[in-house]
């Protein structure tokens, strides 16, 4: 018998109870050279964390804040969130006012985290910008356009790099100086792995860029299970992806297309493929929308979905969500974005004290966890006080739901090689992924839960977002993430609680 409980996803950094580091939902991202303006502290002593990705071949990373009013401190740390007070930050700037500046020469490539902490009353209206400067002589990485993904029929792509010659392969090998030069356009007519590398006129070599293009015949109808999700759809203008979804009577079917670039439309029809274009006036045989179509009460049988390219598009995710009479949690594969990191943990740190990891130097595979409630009802958590499924953690000053997420690293045959410790969580609304959902947040760490159509995202730099990989050799593996692994929380569907993605472990530095 399943017990209806809610969970807590609170993997925050060590800090005194009087302070609070804001849970960082996934897209608090700083793009290189693009300012973020109007930044304001809602807590005079709180800290908000942002992420910036430093590309290969970067000579300098510079982060500055200015403008507005008040006082703040600026922290910068590679791979991990800086904790409150910045004691573990790799770089910090603590001058009075909002004018702060950090400069890192030859920063290592990968994810860096920026912490803005209010001081002496907080701050308001601040602008922040992170700028990366390419190293002299470095070669830009090749760009595949359109990006890799799933396409309806043959597609044509270009492989280019500014100021460099691009060479490519289609046999899985890394391009060398003797590989063929990329043509003006490359026709892809079947499933193909493209590898590209840029070469400068002075013999400097860029990184290998790899992409997999999956080609389905034009007009093919593919089965999409109820509550099914397909990522990385793409198409040239006028192209069409077709899917069939079996649905029982009296359900609520929502079809959502999100993410990526370009424009597409959705058409949904019961029993047969919907025609192209808008429905004629008075035609109720099918429904058409841009990003979302809802059938409030379904007729039993097959519904056919068409995703039509109004312009060329790529990177789109399509979901067919059948709402039952309860909540339904699922991890979101696209935001995992795993990477490796070598870190040293102090015995007094919250991570060690709470049993997340042992003290000392550890090599980790870090990842971001996003949990979405794709059901028709909110996941509402009970009062944690006195509840045996919750624990109060002194380092964080609030309750966590025990063992909400579990992860494993598998080989390509599915055999377990490493496992992550089950992580406690504080469940709350961070991102409204369904535009038809309630527009206001309802749940937080004081009143836990996730609304229908909302998700809760925890960034890779937070404690517990890892699997220890220690001396695991470089190679190709699979990362598995499961939410509600013990089935304690009541859901309408437990079959979608696990996602598995490919991951490559690089050689140790």
Automatic annotation (TrEMBL):
InterPro entries: GH29D-like_dom, LOX-like_protein, Lysyl_oxidase, Peptidase_C_arc/bac. Pfam families: CHB_HEX_C_1, Lysyl_oxidase, PPC. Residues 1-19 form the signal peptide. Residues 49-117 form the Peptidase C-terminal archaeal/bacterial domain. It comes from the Bacteria. The keyword Signal applies. Keywords: Signal. Residues 146-209 form the GH29D-like beta-sandwich domain. The keyword Signal applies. PANTHER family: LYSYL OXIDASE-LIKE-RELATED (PTHR45817:SF4). This is Lysyl oxidase family protein.
């Amino acid at each position: 018998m399943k017990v209806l409980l809610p969970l807590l996803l609170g993997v925050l950094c060590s800090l005194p109870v009087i302070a609070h580091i804001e849970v960082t939902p996934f897209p608090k991202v700083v793009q290189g050279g693009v300012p973020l303006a109007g930044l304001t502290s809602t807590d005079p002593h709180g800290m908000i964390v942002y992420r910036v990705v430093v590309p290969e071949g970067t000579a300098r990373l510079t982060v500055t804040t200015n403008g507005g009013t008040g006082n703040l401190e600026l922290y910068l740390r590679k791979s991990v969130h800086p904790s409150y007070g910045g004691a573990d930050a790799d770089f910090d700037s603590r001058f009075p006012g909002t004018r702060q500046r950090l400069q890192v020469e030859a920063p290592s490539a990968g994810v860096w985290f920026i912490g803005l902490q209010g001081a002496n009353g907080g701050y308001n209206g601040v602008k922040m910008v992170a700028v990366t400067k390419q190293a002299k002589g470095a070669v830009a990485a090749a760009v595949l356009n359109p990006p890799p993904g799933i396409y309806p029929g043959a597609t044509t792509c270009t492989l280019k790099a500014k100021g460099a010659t691009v060479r490519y392969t289609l046999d899985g090998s890394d391009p060398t100086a003797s590989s063929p030069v990329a043509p003006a356009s490359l026709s892809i007519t079947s499933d193909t792995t493209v590898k590209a590398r840029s070469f400068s006129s002075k013999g400097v070599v860029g990184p290998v860029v790899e992409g997999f293009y999956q080609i389905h015949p034009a007009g093919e109808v593919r089965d999409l299970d109820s509550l099914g999700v397909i990522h990385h759809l793409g198409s040239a203008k006028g192209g069409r992806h077709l899917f069939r979804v079996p649905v029982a009577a009296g359900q609520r079917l929502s079809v959502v297309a999100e993410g990526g670039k370009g424009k597409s439309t959705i058409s949904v029809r019961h029993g047969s493929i919907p025609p192209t274009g808008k429905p004629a006036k008075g035609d109720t045989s099918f429904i058409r929308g841009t990003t979302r179509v809802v059938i409030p009460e379904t007729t039993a049988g097959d519904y056919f979905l068409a995703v039509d390219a109004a312009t060329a598009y790529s990177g789109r995710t399509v979901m067919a969500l059948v709402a039952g009479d309860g909540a339904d949690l699922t991890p979101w594969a696209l935001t995992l974005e795993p990477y490796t990191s070598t870190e040293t943990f102090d015995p007094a740190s919250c991570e060690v004290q709470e049993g997340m990891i042992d003290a000392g130097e550890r090599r980790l595979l870090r990842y971001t966890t996003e949990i979405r409630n794709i059901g028709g009802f909110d996941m509402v958590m009970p009062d944690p006080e006195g509840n045996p499924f919750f624990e109060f953690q002194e380092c964080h000053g609030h309750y966590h739901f025990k063992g909400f997420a579990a992860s494993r690293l598998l080989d390509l045959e599915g055999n377990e090689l490493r496992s992550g410790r089950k992580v406690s969580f504080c469940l709350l609304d961070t991102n409204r992924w369904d535009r038809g959902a309630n527009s206001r947040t309802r749940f937080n760490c004081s009143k836990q839960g996730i609304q229908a159509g909302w998700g809760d995202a925890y960034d890779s730099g937070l404690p517990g977002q890892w699997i220890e990989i220690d001396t695991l050799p470089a190679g190709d593996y699979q990362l598995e993430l499961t939410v509600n692994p013990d089935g304690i929380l009541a859901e309408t569907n437990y079959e979608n609680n696990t996602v598995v993605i490919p991951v490559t472990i690089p050689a140790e530095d």
